[in-house]
Amino acid sequence: xxxxxxxxxxxxxxxxxxxxxxxxxxxxxxxxxxxxxxxxxxxxxxxxxxxxxxxxxxxxxxxxxxxxxxxxxxxxxxxxxxxxxxxxxxxxxxxxxxxxxxxxxxxxxxxxxxxxxxxxxxxxxxxxxxxxxxxx
Length: 136
Prior knowledge:
- The protein contains 7 helices and 4 strands, in the order E-H-H-E-H-H-H-H-E-H-E.
- By secondary structure, it is of the alpha/beta class.
- The chain has one domain: 3-Layer(aba) Sandwich (Rossmann fold), CATH 3.40.50.
- Helix 7 links the parallel strand 3 and strand 4.
- The longest helix has 16 residues.
- The model has no long low-confidence stretch (mean pLDDT 95).
């Protein structure tokens, strides 16, 4: 089975404490299925994004403990170089994105993984980069 690199937007939706809407429930269920199938991949920058901005220390520690069961994929120098190349390609066509987004793209391309994201920017990246987006 193919591995799926999980973006921050998916983790955020799945871990919300508020009453989820239908799409958020679908995303959470799909993430749970992928976890049970041992198909997910996590990278450190996504972990950092997910934990950033949590001012309540108890909430921070709880989330950190929950996601600690997932080992980060080891990012190498060539992954960062490929991410910069992805950013340059997209920028050439007027598409901006975050460093983390392009690192996700680079790692996924290198390994032939799909990207599971609710961030619509990935639809724009897909026009110019050979990324595969995971669909529910």
